[in-house]
Amino acid sequence: MKTVKVITLGCSKNTVDTEHLLAQLPCSGFIVKPEDWGGAVDYLLLNTCGFIGDAKEESVQAILEAVESKKRGLASKVLVFGCLSQRYSKELPEEIPEVDGWFGARDLNPVLRALGVEPSECVSRYRTDGKPYAYLKISEGCDRRCSYCAIPFIRGAHRSVPMEQLVAEAGMLAASGVKELILIAQDTTFYGLDIYGRRALAELLQRLSGVPGIEWLRIHYSYPADFPLDVLKQMADNPKVCRYLDIPLQHIADRVLDNMHRHVDGAWTRNLIRRLRDEVPGVALRTTMIVGHPGEGEEEFEELLNFLREARFERLGAFTYSEEDGTWGAEHLKDEVTEEEKRRRLDALMSLQASVSLECNRARVGTVERVLVDDLVDGTLVCRSEFESPDVDGEVLVSSTDASLVGKFIDVRIVGADEYDLIAEMM
């Protein structure tokens, strides 16, 4: 029996890729070791991220550490795949020749063949954790051409996964104990256009809600332009679709949005947010913003801050602009904002958001909510309501030592709140 370990870096989409790959190994004579395994393995694989500067540096460092493990006898072979090796397929083999194989991000079959495994078309997942939630990647690639983003030329054109395949995968995940599916893609709202000739996210939600055992469906990575409004009816009327939407807006100022090639303006964006809140009462909105993008002067940044005060997003993430090789922005726009100023703006934005988040959380104190118990840590049940997504949002914390509740839904009363987490008591 050969042993293999995969280190997965980057986003949840990479996690899904890793689990699809690992699912084909045990029946081919492999023992899969967990990511924190410290012993020797025959194959050490790295699934890399190449999206922005910090992620690229993390991936390169992980590759160098894997090469060092090989030198110390902890791995016979090191194979690298994913976004970084797709993006720098010529440069990396020259710079790090100790790696035994380099592969891209668009096709896992070459990785399997390098392991001596003939790829199977069977849909399966090797769960890398025992969480009661799982990510379901409904499409790959992206047809958008945002000026700052390298994803389209890393992952390729948009390709939807057929509904039948997704429903089958959802059934398999439910059978393993998964209660919540988090729908992910480079752009979930584009789902279906390539294979059905229409936006079919709402139909997919309806189909997935019929899978026995699945209680929650959550939508991530929704592009705002041409948002399919029939999805809002599913969110409002289907009890299994969480009243939660991750919709990265990136900015509100027209000048910046135009430079970003986002195909919307500020007025359109404000109208969409109003419609989301009107048609899905109580919805929790998560968004992402970029500060320091070309075209963002003091006036545009102040407009962004005012928009955050107005829109009052329950959840928000942000990062500073950086030029990415090969993007339209890097080739045609001048990065005039200093790194120091970008950091100042980011700090100001996140400070404002912390106060908004605190007010939103405090407004929930005294309410009774249904939560999913993800884990038990040091006498505390780590839970989430429909308004929190794992890894990116806060948590609902309940004092208890009852491990039998992990993976189950319970009703709790919210009794305390800070900027991120909520404190609750069992009913």
What's the short version?
The chain is an alpha/beta fold and 427 residues long. It has helices spanning 12-22, 53-71, 83-87, 91-95, 109-114, 151-155, 163-175, 193-196, 201-208, 230-237, 254-260, 266-279, 298-311, 328-332, 339-362; strands at residues 2-8, 30-33, 41-48, 75-82, 101-102, 133-137, 139-140, 159-160, 180-184, 216-219, 241-246, 284-291, 315-320, 368-377, 380-384, 396-399, 409-417, 422-426.
Strand order of the biggest β-sheet = 6-9-10-11-12-13
Point out poorly predicted stretches. none
The count of DSSP E runs of length 2 or more, i.e. the number of strands, is 18
What is the oligomer described by this structure?
single chain
- Distance between the ends: 50 Å
Q: What value does the Rg take, in angstroms?
A: 22 Å
Query: Which percent range describes the beta-strand content?
Result: 15-25%
Detailed description of the structure:
It is a single chain. By secondary structure, the chain is an alpha/beta fold. It has 15 helices and 18 strands. It has helices at 12-22, 53-71, 83-87, 91-95, 109-114, 151-155, 163-175, 193-196, 201-208, 230-237, 254-260, 266-279, 298-311, 328-332, 339-362, and strands at residues 2-8, 30-33, 41-48, 75-82, 101-102, 133-137, 139-140, 159-160, 180-184, 216-219, 241-246, 284-291, 315-320, 368-377, 380-384, 396-399, 409-417, 422-426. Helix 9 packs parallel to helix 10 (230-237) and helix 13 runs parallel beside helix 15. It is globular, with a radius of gyration of 22 Å. The mean pLDDT is 96.
